[in-house]
């Protein structure tokens, strides 16, 4: 047994390091809407989810598996983007035992390698989506393109490198506007609150700084462990990948997808049990997000039923490029200055894309949406220097409302720990404060 645990842990760690060093229908309480034209037979094939067999084989969970069994209504909404993606959003329109009707709207946006499932995975009094719904909110959850629940693309198969030609820029400037617009259209609200975690906050920073009209659609932005200026991040995989250039290696090897569920599921499934779970949880947290003393080791097996949810290596390259500048850099994707080179993504250069040698910065000082930052005292991804720079730039626009500190919180404690929900209570208080006249 000890050998099996050691072997399982080794496989998990090596797997990570090797990759790094409106029609409607009601089915069992699921309300599904689809926007856009009826897809052709070929397009239907492209819209299929390649992770679905692995989810079934290795005990993975979908939103449809999780939410209704906890007693909450669930709606699935598809939104089509101008560049050919079909993204799935999920909605809990009201709390358990409540009646439908107008109420304030909140959009929850997950972090990197996660999905909407992270907001629903724990018990109803512990999971953010349920707590917000029971507090009187119409809860919407986004999924970034390419993750387990947003795999549909009208133009490319997931095996095509161009399917993975996306990073923060597309999530912020194409996907997030479409998701916000759909939530407002369906709910009938004038504005919504946004809650972001990690890269989910980065996406909202990029959107609100680039498209000023969306500051009029967001009542308040609530950011948990927000990441933007990453010069002093600490976790091994993220930092080492950027330092040694593994993100470039991925592109040279034409490996466009990273941490896909169907690859890791056979190995992490072996990490069942309290002891093996503790070892795996500790290893993965330290490698990817930093250590946690609050996440229960026995929850590892549950977490692995929805995580990881895939990420494009181009997105990792985007973050790694910003890290390598060693400056306070939160910018659009860096294509480089060699206009004669080609990559698997058929890229050109910054001059062709932006008309400048360097990519444009996302200027947080242009954000006018009231913004609340939630930070953990032992968060090694959203570092004190990063948070301080975010505060400084938001204060230039007068949009920084407050920063709340949570002692002992690490990066993933905002999502995966069960010991306290004070951070959720705090966000609900601010969301209600700014909700008047929004619905």
From TrEMBL:
Gene3D superfamilies: alpha/beta hydrolase (3.40.50.1820)
InterPro entries recorded: AB_hydrolase_fold (IPR029058), AB_hydrolase_lipase (IPR006693), Lipase_euk (IPR025483)
Entries under PROSITE patterns matching the protein: PROKAR_LIPOPROTEIN (PS51257)
One Pfam assignment: Abhydro_lipase
Partial AB-hydrolase lipase domain sequence ranges: 65-120
Keyword line: Hydrolase, Lipid degradation, Lipid metabolism, Signal
Entry annotated with the keyword NAD: no
UniProt KW Isomerase keyword: no
Signal peptide annotation: 1-24
Family from the record: Belongs to the AB hydrolase superfamily. Lipase family.
Protein name: Lipase
Lineage: Eukaryota, Viridiplantae, Chlorophyta, core chlorophytes, Chlorophyceae
């Amino acid at each position: 047994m000890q050998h099996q645990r050691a072997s399982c842990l080794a496989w998990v760690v090596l797997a990570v390091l090797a990759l790094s060093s409106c029609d409607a229908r009601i089915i069992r309480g699921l309300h599904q809407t689809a926007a856009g034209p009826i897809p052709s037979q070929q397009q239907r094939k492209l819209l299929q989810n390649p992770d679905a067999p692995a989810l079934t084989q290795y005990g993975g969970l979908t939103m449809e598996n999780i939410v209704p069994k906890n007693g909450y209504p669930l709606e699935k909404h598809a939104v089509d983007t101008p560049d050919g993606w079909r993204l799935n959003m999920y909605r809990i329109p009201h709390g358990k035992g409540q009646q439908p009707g107008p109420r304030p709207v909140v959009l929850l946006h997950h972090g990197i390698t996660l999905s909407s499932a992270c907001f629903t995975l724990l018990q109803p009094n512990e999971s953010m989506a349920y707590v917000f719904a029971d507090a009187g909110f119409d809860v919407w959850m986004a999924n970034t393109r390419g993750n387990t629940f947003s795999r549909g693309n009208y133009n490319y198969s997931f095996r095509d490198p161009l399917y993975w030609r996306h990073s923060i820029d597309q999530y912020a400037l194409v996907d997030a506007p479409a998701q916000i617009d759909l939530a407002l259209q369906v709910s009938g609200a004038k504005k919504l609150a946004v809650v972001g975690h990690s890269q989910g906050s980065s996406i909202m920073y990029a959107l609100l700084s680039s498209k000023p009209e969306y500051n009029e659609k967001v009542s308040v932005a609530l950011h948990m462990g927000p990441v933007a200026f990453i010069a002093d991040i600490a976790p091994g995989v993220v930092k080492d990948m950027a330092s040694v250039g593994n993100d470039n290696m991925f592109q040279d090897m034409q490996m466009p997808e990273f941490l896909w569920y169907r690859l890791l599921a056979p190995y992490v499934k072996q990490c069942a049990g309290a002891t093996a779970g503790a070892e795996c949880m500790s290893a993965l947290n330290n490698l990817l997000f930093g250590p946690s003393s609050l996440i229960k080791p026995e929850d590892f097996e549950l977490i692995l039923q929805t995580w990881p949810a895939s990420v494009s290596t181009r997105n990792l390259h985007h973050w790694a490029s910003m890290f390598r500048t060693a400056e306070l850099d939160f910018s659009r994707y860096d294509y480089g200055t060699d206009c004669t080179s080609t990559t698997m993504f058929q890229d050109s250069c910054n001059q062709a894309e932006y008309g400048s040698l360097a990519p444009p910065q996302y200027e947080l000082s242009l954000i006018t949406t009231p913004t609340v930052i939630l930070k953990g005292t032992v968060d090694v991804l959203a570092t004190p220097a990063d948070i301080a720079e975010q505060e400084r730039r938001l204060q230039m626009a007068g949009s920084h409302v407050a920063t709340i500190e949570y002692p002992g919180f690490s990066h993933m404690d905002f999502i995966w720990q069960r010991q306290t929900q004070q951070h959720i209570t705090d966000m609900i208080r601010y969301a209600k404060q700014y909700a008047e006249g929004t619905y």
